[in-house]
Amino acid sequence: MTEENKVEKEELEKLVKKNGKKAVVIMTYNSVKGFPAGIHSEGRVVVYSWNRHAHRGDTPAIAKQLTDQFYDDFDLRRDGELFEHVFVYTGINAIDESIQTAQSIAHDWKTGDDETKVTMVGCECDYNRKSRIAHNNYQVDLIKCGCGGESVLGKIAQQIIEGVDPKKIRDYGEK
Ligand SMILES: [Zn+2]
To answer: Which residue, 9, 40, 41, 89, is the most exposed by fewest CB within 10 angstroms?
Structure first.
């Protein structure tokens, strides 16, 4: 695991307290266009990413490492109050790991409400499988992106910073 992906809990806690706005996590084994791994906009957006386009064969291990890092940095049962929503890029190369991550976070994160907590951001590859997961788990949603996800994930980060409610972000209708 690279240190570039570690997020300091104390730092995020301070920012969330100061701003009164919870953090939105964007996780991807590729990258988020315009938003390198780490804390952005005073804690409003937190990116866990590989910061580059992952080579196909490496993606399952990278996806798993990023999830482990997130779980190392935060205990969702205790630190859930820090977060408002999580977006997980769900591509084809690490589809099992990404789906697993989305479902685990939705399960482990005790928010006190029964709304959607996690949005999978998925390309069209094996989209039916992703749809089924979202359909069968009301805590997990799905929106579309192009393969790699970089540009749509970057737009999501931008919109969150501009004040858009993460639960209201829908398909951009483009790839
Ligand atoms: Zn794809």
So the answer is: 9
